[in-house]
Structures are given as structure tokens and as C-alpha cells.
């Protein structure tokens, strides 16, 4: 049987049968994939110590009738420092779950791969994690998947909104005009500083730019953007309570 090699990071592990695990990975070449790690829960398994959750890995796999089977693994890059405290661990779990929930199987998105690598680089750096880290990651992920919020025009009809209040609609992934807002649920007014923050993100060439954000505004923007994300994936994130506890 002809095998393949995938460069990927493990975003979820699930037990399977007596000693196996099913690994959900995000790969550069084909996006989200599931691989079978046979015997990995046995003490003598050669895979046991190699499957780091915070590393880009190269997997040698062989096809099977069920899932591709891991035949070998090599570490390409380590992000172990991203797991050195509970806050960082909570953030890692959350961004992994976002990618897990928001992406279909076997559809590569280069910008998601680049975003994930940049996020792990950020969490591996010395110093405190920026308070707006998760907000920026969520915005970048939505943009990479084609759901980038619109702020200059109505997200429904496309009409210019320069002279209107910014009515935020999670179901339309952005701002809507007064006419299109009629009959929509969960409409709220987005402050001008919120529009300025998202516009600065959109115009920045850096993935995680140094953008100042008022601490009182951050939870509001996270709530609005989180509403868009929840509308897309049609469920809330399981990691949210853990993140709140260790933020």
C-alpha cells in the first residue's frame, strides 16, 4: 500500500477501542483530517511520546478501510512554551476547538494554517498574553473562512452605511442597515470605537497587531463576534467555561 506524509498539528485526541486513539489534526496539505494511532495507549508504544499536542508533526500514514493509520511521526516545530501556564493552555484549547468546529473535513485553507502557526508563536513568547488575543484570533479565523464581518456597507443589501448607526447582526456576520434590520433578532448597536478596532485589524499587515482596546469594550466585542461564530457553527464552544475560569 502506498503511504502519504502529512505536516499537521493534533487538535483533538479521542480513545478508540482498547489501546488506540483517533487523532483529529489540522494539516497544511488537506486541512482537517482524522488519523488512527494504533496501540498508542500502551506503555511500550513508540508513538506515545512523539504525539505532542503542541508541535507541528510530520505523519507517515498508510491507507486502510477505516482511517489512515499512522506508521511514523517526526517533530517539525515545538510550541511547548505555549502550555506553560493554565491561561495559555485554556487559550490553546479554545483556538483548537474553534478550528475543529468551524472547518469541514479535507478542505485545506492556507490562511488557517498560517493563523494557527502565528497564534502558537504568540502564546510561546515571553511576557503576558495580550488581553485581546482571542478576539483577534476569532476575527482572523472568520476572515480566513470567508465570514469576514463588513462595517462600511450593509451585510445584507450592500448599501453604504456611513451616516447610519452600526447595527450589529450575528446572523449576517456584520453591520446591517435600518431597513434590513427589521425583523432580525439579536440586533445591537456597535460603538464607533468597536468599528475602528475591527477596521484597524482589517487594514493591518500583522496577524496580531498591537491595537489598543479599552478593557470595558473588549467583552462587548468578544460577545458580538462570538455571536457570529456561534451562528456559523450552530453551537457554543465546550472550552468556554474552562477559558473563563482560567482567564
From TrEMBL:
Give the UniProt entry's GO cellular component terms: bacterial nucleoid
- One GO BP annotation here? DNA recombination
Pinpoint the DNA replication/recombination mediator RecO N-terminal domain residues: 5-78
Which ranges does the record mark as transmembrane? none
Q: Which UniProt keywords apply?
A: DNA damage, DNA recombination, DNA repair
Note the Pfam families from the entry. RecO_C, RecO_N
- Check the record and name the InterPro entries matching this protein: ARFGAP/RecO (IPR037278), DNA_rep/recomb_RecO_N (IPR022572), NA-bd_OB-fold (IPR012340), RecO (IPR003717), RecO_C (IPR042242)
Q: What does this protein do?
A: Involved in DNA repair and RecF pathway recombination.
**Family named by the database record:** Belongs to the RecO family.
Q: What is this protein called?
A: DNA repair protein RecO
Q: What is the lineage of its organism?
A: Bacteria, Candidatus Doudnaibacteriota
Please state the gene responsible for encoding this protein: recO
Amino acid at each position: 500500500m502506498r503511504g502519504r506524509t502529512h505536516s499537521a498539528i493534533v487538535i483533538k485526541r479521542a480513545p478508540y477501542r482498547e489501546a488506540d486513539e483517533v487523532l483529529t489534526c489540522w494539516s497544511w496539505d488537506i486541512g482537517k483530517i482524522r488519523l488512527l494511532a494504533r496501540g498508542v495507549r500502551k506503555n511500550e508504544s513508540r508513538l506515545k511520546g512523539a504525539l505532542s499536542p503542541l508541535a507541528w508533526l510530520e505523519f507517515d500514514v498508510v491507507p486502510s478501510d477505516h482511517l489512515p493509520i499512522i506508521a511514523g511521526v517526526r517533530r517539525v516545530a515545538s510550541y511547548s512554551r505555549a502550555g506553560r501556564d493554565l491561561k495559555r493552555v485554556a487559550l490553546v484549547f479554545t483556538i483548537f476547538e474553534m478550528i475543529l468546529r468551524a472547518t469541514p473535513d479535507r478542505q485545506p485553507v492556507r490562511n488557517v494554517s498560517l493563523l494557527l502557526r502565528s497564534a502558537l508563536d504568540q502564546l510561546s513568547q515571553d511576557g503576558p498574553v495580550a488581553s485581546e488575543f482571542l478576539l483577534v484570533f476569532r476575527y482572523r479565523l472568520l476572515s480566513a473562512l470567508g465570514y469576514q464581518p463588513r462595517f462600511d456597507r450593509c451585510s445584507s443589501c450592500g448599501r453604504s452605511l456611513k451616516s447610519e448607526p452600526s447595527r450589529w447582526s450575528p446572523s449576517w456576520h456584520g453591520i446591517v442597515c435600518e431597513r434590513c434590520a427589521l425583523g432580525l433578532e439579536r440586533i445591537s448597536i456597535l460603538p464607533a470605537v468597536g468599528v475602528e478596532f475591527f477596521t484597524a485589524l482589517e487594514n493591518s499587515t500583522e496577524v496580531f497587531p498591537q491595537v489598543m482596546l479599552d478593557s470595558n469594550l473588549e467583552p462587548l466585542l468578544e460577545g458580538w463576534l462570538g455571536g457570529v461564530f456561534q451562528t456559523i457553527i450552530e453551537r457554543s464552544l465546550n472550552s468556554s467555561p474552562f477559558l473563563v475560569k482560567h482567564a
